[in-house]
Structures are given as structure tokens and as C-alpha cells.
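Hey, sorry to bother you again with one of my protein questions. I've been puzzling over a protein and I'd love to understand its fold better. Take your time with it, there's no hurry, and the full record follows here:
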Amino acid sequence: MPEGGAHSRVEARRLWEVRSVDNDAARLLAADLGICNTTARVLVGRGMSTPASAERYLAPGLDELHSPFEFAHMGAAVDRLQAAIASGDRIAIHGDYDVDGISGSVLLATVLRHLGGDVEVILPHRLTDGYGFNPSGVDRAQRAGARLLVAVDCGITATDACEHAAQLGIDVIIVDHHLPQGELPRAVAILNPRLEDSGYPEPDLAAVAVAFKLARAMLERADTKASGLSMLKLVALGTIADLVPLRGENRTLAVHGLAGLADTVNPGLQALMRVAGVDPRRVTAGDVAFRLAPRINAAGRVGHPDDAAEMFMTDDAAVARRLAGRLEQLNADRRELEQQVSTEAIEASGKEGGLIVVVAGEGWHRGVIGIVASRLVERTGRPSMVIAIEGSEAHGSARSVPGFDVTAALESAAPLLESYGGHKQAAGFRLAADRIDDLRDALGEHAAGFDPKDLEAVLTCDDELHADDVTMVLALELERLEPFGIGNPRPRFLCQDLRLAGPAQVLKSQHLKLRVHSGDSVISALAWRRGELAEKLAGATAIDVVATLKVNRFAGRLEPQLEIQDLRA
């Protein structure tokens, strides 16, 4: 402790701002809906200023879903699939190895088999097959006897693979949501809401949602009473895990998909929720993002995605339990690898002075570098690229901050790269190991025109919340705004001058736990991965925080709890 008993000052990591809200509109909304003024202010601040818009937001209906045939190429895709089913031709579904690709492939395979299709699911191995839809995937489809290949969550940049398929007499349908690069690949139909001429009004669908649209279109044209709505559980998994904006149609899909998990009969989903410790009676987007998705992704990161796909498709509960146990072990392996790479990458990042953090290491497992890149962004507030060196080759993963398009940055260095692709906030790439320094220079030149202040991460708060207003009533009411994620973050609040009710504690050697006064009560506050602050807060009596308000459910008890996102003292 410093001399005189004064505690060390803790600086905020980010800039803080509170969103401006129309007070009169919030007051009227609170009265009309019978909700807390704080909840009404959150809704108004996010654009729901009338009772009708707020009610649609709080309880979105399935009647709000758009017709799948708004996709310009949907008719052509359905015609080709129907022809394949009628003639008994084998259909290969080539997915990606993440949650979005796996869930989309499983969903489409399930519906096509229901309609009589002969379907083979092909999922690539991250280390041996690489990222995306490659000519090797086409060769696998040919060996399986396929005459038609549906690429799910991949394919929009796979011009070589599609040409190879055409030469082998295999038709291709692309079901994707990634950004195109130049000339579109040769295909019977391309279903991608990001294409300017896609015809679809929602550009931000995950690939699993596009697969759902294709499945629904097939069912509409078939002689069946099946609606495909039971597949919304898989749509929710992929949509939330792939970090697409949870607004508009995505919000509707996620709300109904999460609700459906409560009574799922799928043995794989049941087994997965059991090993992940998720209560099926109330599955949240957080449960998907932090419990279910990491276990599914672990198969693609450090194992094989076939394990996850088989778990979802089996009717045998014993097989489902065995595969869920396998995913649990893979996830434990993934955490260990992630910790190892993260420690080395954080150390290396300290030497990076440019706007973009670029770190590389020998022996870093390719399956965890995306997670580590996210950790670096969280820690540094800068776009970050983590590169795994494997002999003469290098594979990288990039994550960004709002205001910086990381895919555009990679495009500026395209001559140095063997391949790249992704979104504005996340991307993957491959290059020769001896070009990493050149890449760092090229990215530095690209970033030279950006003012670092424009890219500073800002924590925007929905409202200011006084300690006495932190109640269970409010915490429960805010849950009605779920599911939370990109495009609909959990409401953040600026809480100033919170009075501490005891010394800080460290949980599991890395998390900070505090107790603060709220009216006549004392509530807990947690800051994940900020355990290092405990010593600095010794002697502190009050703090300012940006935090979310959650309901802590433990041993049958419900308590309000603050989750601190940033702190100053």
C-alpha cells in the first residue's frame, strides 16, 4: 500500500459516455407499458419510443419473418434440389467447422433427408483441410458420389473450387453470408444476403439462418405438413455464436429458437446442455455464447467437427452423451491451449507500437488464435492479429474494434497473402512465414491514415444508475430485453460513487469480486479477468464503474448482481 494509506489510482481502460434519451418519451413509455423508468429509457435510447415498437421488440412474432423466396436465386436452388431428390442423386453438404457452419449443415441435411434426399455431410478439418470451401472438398464430394454440392457458411469466394466442381460435373449451390471478393463463383444459385442483388431485405443473417430459409422454401414446395420451425433451435445456436446483430429478423429467430430449447427432444442438444451445465428451462444468449458454442467450436478448433454434427444428428441418446462428453474434453483441451498462447501473445503485444497489433509465434495452435486475438483487442483496444507459424506457412486470425474494417486492412495487403476472408470485425488469412514482417509493414501503411482517437473503444451507457436503484425488480425486467449480443448488447449503466462494503477479493486467481452498498442491502459486483485490481483497490472506499445488471441464480436464490466492464477509483 502506498505511504499514508492512500490506495493506488485505477484508471478506466475506455472512454465512457451516456446515451442521450428523450425523457418525455421514456416517461410515457414507462406509463403505457407499466415498466420501470430505467427500462423505458433503455428502450427509447435504442429506438423503441412507441408502445407498439417496444411490444414488437419485447415479443417478436414469427409472422414477422420474411418469405424465403425474397432471395432472388431461391427458386433456382429449390428446383435443383428437388430434381436431385427426384432422381435419387446424392447431395453433398459442405459446411464450415464453426458453430454457424455445423448447425447450418445439420439443419439442411435433416430437412433434405426428411424430404427423401440422399445427403452426405462434409465438414473440413481445420489443420488438414484449411479454411473454407476448397477443391479438396469437391474431391471428397466426388468420392462420395455427389452430383450436387451445397456449400454452407462458405463458398462466396471459392471460385477455384466451383470451377473444379464444374469440371467434374458437380453443380454447386452457395448458402453463405460472408462478403464477396471480386468475381462471384460459378454456381446454380447463390443465397447470400450480403450481395447487392440478393433480393433479401435483411443483410445480416448468419449462414444457418440462410440455410433455414432454403429449408423452409423446400418444405413450402413439398407435400408435407412440416414447417421447419423445430429447426429454430439450431438457428439460434449459429446466429448467436456467429456474432451477427441480434436485431430485426435475427432477434426473432433467436428469441423463438432459445424458447424451443426448453422442450427439445433432440438427444444431442439435451446431452450438450447437460454437460455444459445449462438449464434447458431458461437458455439465454449468454449460455449459448459462453457455454454451448465453445464446446461445439472446440470440435472444429482442436478436434474434428464431425463429432459435433454427429451429436446433433444421432437418435441414440447413449451416442449423444458420449459425443457431448467428447466435446467437453475437447473444450478443456482448448482452454489449456488458449491460456498458453494467450500468455505468450500478450507478452509479445507489449512490443507492438503501431495501431494494429500483429503478433506471431511458433507452435501456437491454429485453433485458438481467434480467441486470443479477441483477448488482445479486449486488452489493448486496438485491432489485433495473431499468427501461428507452422514451418514455412503461417495462419492468422484477426479481430477488430468498431470503426476499423479488418478485412479491408487485409485486402490492402492482398499481394502478400495466399488467402483471406471474413467480416469487418473478424477475419482469417494465410501467408508464407517469411512475409510476416512485410505484412506488419503493409498494415502499418494502411493504418497510417487513421487517427487512433477515432478508434478508441467507447463504452456507451444506456443510462446512469444510482446504487439505490440496483434492485431485483429492475434486474428481472431488463431480462425481457434478451437475447443480448451484437446489435443488442446487455444494457450498460454508469454507476458513480459506489460505496464498497468490504475489501476486494480475487476469485480463481483472476476475477475481481466486490461488495457494494445498495440502499439497505449489500450486493455483489464482479469484474472478469481483473483480479490484478484487488491490490490497487486496497483502502478504497468508493468506485465508479460501467456495469451491467444481471440476475444471479444460485442454489434456488435470485440476487441482483453487477458485472463490471470498466472501473476507476
About this structure: Confidence is low (pLDDT under 50) at residues 1-7. Residues 335 and 368 are 9 Å apart (CA to CA).
